[in-house]
TrEMBL record:
Functional summary from the UniProt entry: Part of the tripartite ATP-independent periplasmic (TRAP) transport system.
Similarity section: Belongs to the TRAP transporter small permease family.
Topological category with respect to the lipid bilayer: Multi-pass membrane protein
Membrane-spanning ranges: 12-33, 45-63, 84-105, 125-144
Localization, UniProt: Cell inner membrane
Name recorded for this polypeptide: TRAP transporter small permease protein
Source species, domain of life: Bacteria
Domain spans labelled Tripartite ATP-independent periplasmic transporters DctQ component: 21-152
Annotated keywords: Cell inner membrane, Cell membrane, Membrane, Transmembrane, Transmembrane helix, Transport
Complex and partners: The complex comprises the extracytoplasmic solute receptor protein and the two transmembrane proteins.
Primary subcellular site in the record, as a coarse category: membrane
Amino acid sequence: MPSRPDARLERVLATLALVIIALISLANVVVRYVTHASFAFTEEFSVFLLVVLTFAGASVALRRNGHIRIGMLERALPKGPRRALIVLQWLCGAIVLVLIVWFGAKLAWQEYQWQSLSPGLGLPQWWYIAWLPLLAALMLLRLTQQTRDRLRGRLDDES
């Protein structure tokens, strides 16, 4: 049985993000229960880590061919048109991800130039935003790998 493709970096990143979210949320609940006050940083970090978790998890799902899609049309088409549809799916996904990379990088650069600070903790805003184009670029890589494997018949549509 062939091994499933994996996106180890993104899997580790998603796991770390989830663990940190859980730990800081738990700590915030305990501190709030004991002191009737809460940590100020938890919401800002949790939102940032949730974005990291979302993009990293989507990247893993892409690589493992686990994204939700309706494959009825794909399975009904002969090999040639099916391959064209797979390439069209890649093209649509790639366009969206390239736009996220481009505009995310542009926004991160502007935030760096403007020296914008986060509203909650006063940290440089670009620290948070820089992850968006990086993770979108990883998603683009995983999408391309998945498409290549699908075109070569290495990935089962039902997995």
